[in-house]
Specification:
alpha+beta, Alpha-Beta Plaits, BirA Bifunctional Protein, domain 2, three-stranded antiparallel beta sheet, three-stranded mixed beta sheet, 37% helix, 23% strand
Length: 283
Amino acid sequence: MSLYKIPSPVRLKAGVRETLMEKLVYVAPGISRVEFENAEEAKPLIVVEYHGEMEENLLRGKISDTVRSFARGFIDVEKEILFDRRDVRPINDLPVYEKMIEAGWIHCYETGRVLLSGPAKRLFDFFDARFAAMGERYGAVSDKYPVLIGVDTLKKADYFSSFPHHITLASHLVEDVEKIQAFSDKAQEGIVDFEPLEKNTGHICSPAVCFHLYQALENRVLDKVVCRTAVGPCFRYESVNMATLERLWDFSMRDIIFVGPSDEVDVLRQSAMDPVMELVDQL
């Protein structure tokens, strides 16, 4: 393991730094941690924990180039704070996640995947039922969407230009009986090698639930706002940023979706925030 401290080549506004830390782990395989030292300074030190084989000078150069590029293109959007609960403090500081693992309520698989059992699963069901009930206030029709989504659909939403680092590709073996049999024979010997046999399907694992509805409504003229609700698995790869239950590669998302004229949707969306904050305050 190597620890490098790299001076930022440009001044970094406070709003840039948090997002930049998440992006820098994608610079090269083997980066396990990124943080800022002397964060109050305009040009802080970027601390990188590295376990790979790239030469130090090359890694430093890639880090610096990424920082310059990101800072140059970053748009610092002024935030409008609608609700603020930063004054609320947890009733205790127990390591809840670790305790749930010890109790067997959570089992961690590798790479951002978990099993929920017992009270943890019941808690998941409780919150999902509460969120589904919020959708019922608006007469939301319940949908069930597929896990896979077409590349063309996400291209129209500019997803690949905005979040290319999050995508999880879906592929399968090529339709070739000899190659499939050869793969099966090797698998019986404990050798599993997908690389020469994979086929690009034109699909990825869904990064969000709502895109499926947008595709279903494509080219339709709506005479009123469409309101739907759905829960389903979503996939966003986040490298070493994946931690505890806060950041997972494979997670569930419950959506209440409004589609229609922007002014009407804005009103509905704003009103839907109220029951969410009521639940937050109850907790």
